[in-house]
Known about the structure:
The structure holds two protein chains of two kinds. In chain A, about 0% of the residues lie in helices and about 50% in strands. Chain A is an all-beta fold. In chain A, the strands form two sheets. In chain A, strands 2, 4, 5, 6, 9, 10 and 11 form a seven-stranded mixed β-sheet that branches. In chain A, strands 1-3-8-7 form a four-stranded antiparallel β-sheet, with no helix packed on it. Chain A starts with a strand and ends with a strand.
Amino acid sequence: DAGITQSPRYKITETGRQVTLMCHQTWSHSYMFWYRQDLGHGLRLIYYSAAADITDKGEVPDGYVVSRSKTENFPLTLESATRSQTSVYFCASSRDRVREQYFGPGTRLTVT
Amino acid sequence: GESVGLHLPTLSVQEGDNSIINCAYSNSASDYFIWYKQESGKGPQFIIDIRSNMDKRQGQRVTVLLNKTVKHLSLQIAATQPGDSAVYFCAENNAGNMLTFGGGTRLMVKP
Lengths: 112, 111
């Protein structure tokens, strides 16, 4: 039972490059979320998805793009990475918006 | 819970003692609350939740207390163990909106 997985776990990239972070869940949860976690800000919601082909912006969506062609996958793309996007990124899933969310192990992204 | 800047508040307890971690939430309309545990290098892990129609809920070695009058949530851990060392944070949900996460408290367990 894999649960929710993220890849890669660590990534170093250069400013201006496109980067895609992957998230996969095996629970068939309807909702999926992307957060970034930075010192001083806690967890901030980037984007979320209520179902396949339905996505919505969160608190800090600028510079990010998401898609959800399949229920189990929710990739996050940084179209042109900036140093301010250096962070730890967590994917989460939930049966619905008001229930507990289950988090993946995170991806530590460094933009140089 | 609010962000507390670069330095998380820290609670240091002796192994075997009980721990109480507090969280002040911001929205009086919030009706669902969750406690998460995050160990170093890992994702947040669900511990326990409580709805606003309750003021207490117990799990294995953990109890969550909700005081809606003063908008306060606490997590009690009985017989704290070294494996309980982590950052704990609360999350609140306001009537179906997205979860809002607090900044967290670091629990350090001394052997």
